[in-house]
Specification:
This protein is about 50% helix and about 15% strand. It is built from 15 helices and 8 strands. Helix 14 (about 310-330) crosses helix 15.
C-alpha cells in the first residue's frame, strides 16, 4: 500500500522591514491602549501634538547629540530635543541599555506621546532615538493618522489653529561599523577622563558613562542591533515621510553641510493646502536661480551684439562715474549713488547696469525718484507749471574689506 505524500503549507515570510500579522496586532494593541489613556486623561481637544517632528536616528557614535543643536537652529526650533534614552531612566531600563538592548515598545510609546503634548513642543521638536523597532514604526504611523484625524475633526472650529498640518522628517546619521566602534570607544575614554577630573577637582558635571563605550564586543553588538532593528525600521518609512540620509563619516563641518543640503526648502509639503493654493503663483527662489548664471551671460552677450552703442555708453558711465565712488566705499561694502545721467532714461539701460554689476560680483538695486520742479507761474490764473526731475538712486553692495577696525 502506497503512503500518500504529505503536503505542508507555510505562510510566506514577511519582506524585510515589513511587520508580521502578530507584530501589527501588537502595535495596534499598544497604541490603542496608550491613546485611550491619553483621551481619558487630557480630552480630545487637548491632544495637540507638534506641527513638525524630526525623527533623528543614527548609528552609535554617528553624532546625534553633536549635531542636534545645528539641526535645531537650521529648522528654527526653540525647544530642546526629546531624547528617548533620557525618558527611559528607570533602573530596569538602564540595565537593558547598558547591556546593549532596548526597552519595551509600550513604555517607549506611552512616555513619548505624553511628552509630545507639552506646550513647548507645539511648533516642532526633534526626537532623538525614535523609532527603534518595527512596532514603534507602526505606532508612529498610527500617531500621524490620529493627528490627521484630529485636524479634520477640528478643521472648521475655533480650535483649528491647534491642529495644523503635521510634517514628519526622518533623519538618519550613518557611519560604518568600524567608525562607529572607534567613536564609541573614544567617547568612553574621554568620558572617563572627564569624570575623573570632576571627581578630583569638584568642578563640572559628571557625564553619562556607558559600559558599551569601554568594551569593543558590546560596542560592536550595539552597532549590529542598530543595523538589524533600528536601521530596518527607519528604512521602512522612506516612502511615507520626508526621508534624509546623512553621511556622518566626515568632519563636523562636512556633516553640517550634508545636513543643510538635505533640509532644503519644503514648505509646499508643510503648509496648509489652502495656503499652498494662495502662494502658488510665487515661484520658489531655488527654481528661479537654476541657470541664472547662464542666462546672465546670454543677456550680456546680446547687449554687445545687438545694442552695442547703448551698452558702450552704460559701461562707460559705470567705469567713469560709478566705480570711483564704489572704490571709496571698499571698507563698508555699500555705495549709495544719486544720478540724473541721461543714458539711464533708455528702457534697456537699467537692466544693462544691473547685469554688469551682477557679472562682476556686486548686488545693484535701483530706485527711480521723481521730483516736481516749478518752472513758471501763469500770472493770469496763478497756475504753476512744473517739470519732472528724475533721480536714479543706485545702491551697490559687495563684500567689504576684512581690515580690522579699532
Amino acid at each position: 500500500m502506497q503512503t500518500p505524500a504529505t503536503v505542508t503549507t507555510t505562510a510566506p515570510l514577511p519582506a524585510p522591514g515589513k511587520l508580521t500579522d502578530l507584530e501589527i496586532k501588537d502595535a495596534h494593541l499598544i497604541f490603542d491602549s496608550v491613546w485611550q489613556d491619553l483621551e481619558a486623561d487630557f480630552g480630545r481637544e487637548s491632544l495637540r501634538f507638534p506641527k513638525e517632528i524630526i525623527l533623528l536616528g543614527g548609528a552609535p557614535g554617528a553624532g546625534k547629540g553633536t549635531n542636534t543643536g545645528f539641526i535645531t537652529q537650521t529648522r528654527g526650533l526653540t525647544c530642546p530635543p526629546i531624547v528617548i534614552s533620557a525618558l527611559l531612566d528607570s533602573a530596569d531600563a538602564r540595565a537593558l541599555k547598558n547591556a546593549g538592548n532596548m526597552v519595551g515598545d509600550r513604555e517607549v510609546v506611552r512616555l513619548l506621546l505624553r511628552q509630545l503634548l507639552r506646550a513647548e513642543y507645539r511648533d516642532g521638536v526633534i526626537l532623538d532615538g525614535f523609532p527603534r523597532t518595527k512596532v514603534q514604526v507602526e505606532c508612529l504611523k498610527l500617531l500621524v493618522d490620529k493627528m490627521h484625524a484630529l485636524r479634520r475633526e477640528f478643521y472648521h472650529t475655533p480650535l483649528s489653529i491647534h491642529f495644523r498640518q503635521p510634517t514628519i522628517h526622518i533623519m538618519v546619521l550613518f557611519v560604518d561599523e568600524k567608525e562607529s566602534i572607534a567613536r564609541q570607544l573614544k567617547r568612553g575614554h574621554e568620558t572617563r577622563q572627564h569624570n575623573e577630573e570632576v571627581a578630583r577637582t569638584g568642578i563640572g558635571e559628571l557625564l553619562e558613562d556607558r559600559p558599551t563605550d569601554h568594551d569593543e564586543t558590546l560596542a560592536r553588538r550595539r552597532y549590529r542591533v542598530f543595523k538589524e532593528q533600528t536601521w530596518e525600521a527607519l528604512q521602512s518609512l522612506k516612502e511615507i515621510f520626508h526621508y534624509h540620509f546623512i553621511n556622518a563619516q566626515g568632519s563636523l563641518d562636512e556633516v553640517e553641510q550634508n545636513i543643510l543640503r538635505e533640509l532644503e526648502y519644503q514648505s509646499t509639503l508643510e503648509l496648509d493646502p489652502r495656503t499652498v493654493d494662495r502662494l502658488r503663483g510665487v515661484p520658489v527662489a531655488s527654481e528661479i536661480i537654476v541657470g541664472a548664471r547662464q542666462e546672465l551671460v546670454k543677456r550680456l552677450d546680446a547687449y554687445e551684439l545687438e545694442h552695442s552703442e547703448l551698452f558702450a555708453r552704460v559701461t562707460s558711465f559705470i567705469e567713469k562715474k560709478m566705480i570711483p565712488i564704489v572704490i571709496r566705499h571698499a571698507i563698508s561694502g555699500v555705495a549709495l549713488i544719486n544720478t540724473e545721467e541721461a543714458v539711464l532714461d533708455h528702457p534697456m539701460a537699467l537692466a544693462m547696469l544691473i547685469d554688469v554689476f551682477s557679472e562682476r560680483g556686486y548686488h545693484a538695486v535701483v530706485d527711480i525718484h521723481k521730483i516736481e520742479i516749478p518752472e513758471r507761474v501763469d500770472l493770469a490764473t496763478g497756475a504753476i507749471s512744473c517739470r519732472t526731475k528724475k533721480v536714479f538712486r543706485i545702491q551697490i553692495r559687495f563684500h567689504g574689506s576684512e581690515i580690522r577696525r579699532g
